[in-house]
Amino acid sequence: MTRRWNVLRARLRALFRREAVIRDIDEEMRIHVDMATEDNVRRGMAPAEARAAALREFGNLGCARDTAYEVRGGGNVETLWQDIRFGARMLRKRPGLTFSAVLTMALGIGATSAVFSVVDPLLLRPLPFREPDRLIAIRETCLPKFPSFSVSPGNFLAWRERSDAFESMAAMQNVTMNLTGGGEPERVRALRVTSGFFETFGVSPALGRGFLPDEDAHGHGQVAVLSAGFWQRRFGADLSVLGRTLLLDGKPYVVAGVMPPGAHQAMGDVDVWTPAAFSAEERASHGSHYLRAVGRLAPSATIEAARRQLDEVARALEREHPESNRDWRVTMSPLGDALVGNVRPTLVVLAVAVAFLLLIACANVASLLLGHATSREREIAVRVALGAGRGRILRQLACESTLLTLVGGAVGLALGTFGVDLLLALAPDGLAGLKGVKLDLPLVAFAFLASLAAGLVVGVAPALQAFRVDVNASLKEGGRSGTEGGGRARVRRALVAVEVAACVLLLVGAGLLIRSLDRLLAVDPGFTADGVTTLAIDLPRHKYPDDPAQLAYFERAVREVASLPGVTAAAAAETIPFRVDWVMGFTIEGRTLAPSEQEPSANYYAVTPDYFRVMGIRLLRGRPFGERDGRDGAAVAIVNEKLARQFFPDGDALGKRIGYQRDRMQEIVGIVADIKQYSLEDPGTYQMYEPLPQHPMSAMTLVVRANRDPSADMRARLAGIDPDQPLGVVTPLERIVSESVSRRRFAVVLLGIFAGVALLLAVVGIYGVIADAVTQRTREVGIRLALGARSSECIRLMMGQGALPVLVGLAVGVGAALALMRVMAGLLYQVSATDPATLGAVSLLIAVVALVASYVPARRVTRVDPMAALRSE
User: What pLDDT digit, counting tens, does each position of 788-830 carry?
Assistant: First the structure.
């Protein structure tokens, strides 16, 4: 009984002691509030406003009570949930700080999440196939002409038969097929594939089956597998589509299966798969390159071993077929790398850029928290004086900073969803894998983890400063408004320097890309795209089986379109710039190749006479094609200036004979200006033109120059020629040229946005440092003014507070830019990665922005009342 009484009495005594401590702390805090109120009145505040400001500064009496309970209660009875609730109360009491920090983190997390949504499916997420790391893209190479080229059927079949480094190997060819016989005629994107194609990728149809081995034999490949998107769009996801017959290019194809959603993105963005079913002529062809090949490595093989083995096969083929295989070798890379292609450098640069943006956001929030830490210095001192541990204070501050960044991350994730839509709208064709990007679990998890990490980062500086609180000095200075200590000021200036340095890197990167894009757009492509419209047409062989029928259709199509109102000229071409190409080897009459010399090749064009007038390609010498260059006329050709200059250096190309077939040489009757075939940055190729009547084609592109949009009239007039003929998409040539720089424009726009946001955040950081310096040194400035100092001198004094971190950040940023911008060399065109004009412009911009950001708060010193400052002293 006595023991129980002693325990109860001890608990009551502890309770009374706790209540006494709380009363003492409450009284102490009231004294602080009264003294802070008087101090605010001396500054010129109205009494009510002064009292409200003091209460906001010292209103958290619950903190002291919690500390007293923890110290006097004999143990840590706080839970993480209580820390979170306390942190939420603190953030509610400082709405200005909370709003600024949340908005800043939302910008950083939102931009980071949006870029992650692009980088994840293309660079981080594995391909949707079985063991994707074993899938290898295989191409041919013939240096120096073709570093990476398509594959010939004969070479592919030899690889497959003679190599055991691959478990399986498949090839594919992109073609366009006309779907007729039920519903509106349509041009569909098809993929001819060899046997074992789906097995090589490790995928199976979601409905039905794939192709059987015997269906890849010539004359037996009349089956088709549909993509999920085409099945839903054309057939309304009808499950009875299996066994249905499709009329493709006039031939019946039986639907055997439907692929799962998303499978087409890596195997080819197509509507229909059909067996390749090579003919005997195709199987024996080693010189015609039009296939893409993919192999699945054997379990015990490596990519290097496979490369060596196929290289040996290529050397054997060179000995067996010297006329077509001389100098041709094999190159290969992981399929994922091949699919991303030249978009990878752009994505890497954007990922680094957005990391810098997030760093700037974190530095800005850390600076905000440091700036408001002065008002909490007494609170932390009281807690330390009452016995609160450093770990407990660190946990509390970490909770508050993490709450800020989590809320900012949630808002940023919402912004990121809009950012994803923007990215998809700007994304170049090389980012086809992004079509299914949306808000998903990996994106949410990334935003959450990024927010947690940012919360820890932004809480480090305030927590370290809290550990350096001088308890005695803080409690003794209770009657004054807190001042920012030298250590805290140095940390804030260091954070501003970090912001400026990162901002310089982003601005330099954006500036280099902008200058590069500007120079690229100024390049003369050799033709005039303005006012030219294109329309692709692929005639089915069953309906137009021979050259005369194909030629008759296109000649009539050109005449009908040329007669439309507003059309000034029309033509047809087998190849047009930036869209399709056809490379063929050629020989020059009277010249023989040295044993070690490679046969030259040129872009080949079959065109109607008005093609050069429609495209605005200048005729330099000779004559254009005319009516006399018909099917029965003399074989003639027109070459570009580069070919003429290279192979006829004496300027006597006219009248010479050239040909892509040794038994059919053509007289050169004209020389035209060079044009860019692949892109604006194309260094130039050899080009050879032939009249269409002398080499009719079944697939051509109409090019029309008009002073108004002829799309609707063109379709109506062409439907009158053949109502069942599917037509392609009418596309302005200007859009085709613009799409050729879409990758660069994509990087420019995004990096420019990131740089703009970074500059804004840097301005906020500089402004915050100067504004706090003005607040902390108000009395000093007042005394200086009372002693006769001019306002301009005080303004320069305050602006000097921000000059040093800006200069340091500028120097570090420029130095880092000189070292790091070389990684962007592949994205630049005729601009050095260390371009002095860009570095100078960015430095000047930063200096001007910093000057303005410093001047606005520094000008407040001119409103200081010297007498009020003296009375406060």
Answer: 677 677 777 777 766 778 888 888 888 888 877 777 777 788 8
d(CA 682, CA 688): 17
Query: Which amino acid, one-letter code, is at 691?
Result: P
pLDDT interval class at 67 (50, 70, 90): very low
Task: With CA atoms as reference, report the closest residue to 29 among 434, 551, 379, 539.
Answer: 379
φ and ψ of 361, to 5 deg: -60, -45
Beta carbons within 10 angstroms of residue 185's beta carbon: 17
Contacts of residues 359-362 at CB distance under 8 Å and 24 or more positions apart, as own/partner, are: 359/498, 359/502, 360/108, 360/498, 360/499, 360/502, 360/503, 360/758, 360/761, 360/762, 361/104, 361/105, 361/107, 361/108, 361/109, 361/454, 361/761, 362/105, 362/108, 362/454, 362/457, 362/458
The SS3 call for residue 110 is helix
Query: What pLDDT score does 326 carry?
Result: 84
Angstrom distance (rounded) from CA 499 to CA 512: 20
388-446 confidence digits (pLDDT tens): 556 666 667 777 777 777 787 778 777 777 766 776 666 666 554 555 556 566 767 77
Q: Would you state the structure tokens that stand for residue 637, as one six-digit string? A: 């050709």
DSSP string, 562-606: HTSTTEEEEEEES--TTT---EEE-EETT----TTPPPPEEEEEE
**Of 372-381, 695-704, 765-774, where does the model show the most confidence?**
695-704
Distance, CA of 721 to CA of 860 (rounded, Å): 79
Listed residue (108, 267, 278) closest to 200, CA to CA: 267
Q: Give the integer Cα–Cα distance in Å for 873 and 781.
A: 12
Question: What is the pairing mode between strands 601-607 and 687-691?
Answer: parallel
pLDDT at residue number 801? 67
**Spatial distance between the Cα atoms of 798 and 594, rounded to a whole number of angstroms:** 77
Provide the strand spans (E) within 132-262.
135-142, 146-149, 166-180, 186-193, 207-208, 223-226, 245-248, 251-258
If we measure between CA atoms, which residue out of 720, 191, 186, 109 comes closest to residue 452? 109
- Per-residue DSSP letters for 765-779? HHHHHHHHHHHHTHH
Q: How far is CA 680 from the centre of its chain?
A: 20
Q: How many CA atoms lie within 13 A of 566 on its CB side?
A: 12
User: Is 702 or 441 the better-scoring residue by pLDDT?
Assistant: 702
The pTM is what?
0.73
In the numeric block, the tokens 């056809």 are attached to 582
CB 305 within 8 A of CB 165: yes
**What pLDDT, in 10s, does the model give residues 306-362?**
999 999 999 999 899 988 888 889 998 888 777 776 677 777 787 888 888 888 887
- Tokens of residue 63, six digits: 């903190």
The candidate with the shortest Cα–Cα distance to 117, out of 505, 431, 506, is 431
Residue 453 structure tokens: 């990490």
Judge if the upstream peptide bond of residue 121 is cis by omega within 30 degrees of 0. no
Query: Is the predicted pLDDT of residue 521 greater than 50, yes or no?
Result: yes
Instruction: Name 562's Cβ contacts closer than 8 Å, sequence gap at least 6.
Output: 569, 570, 610, 704
705, 568 in Cβ contact below 8 A?
yes
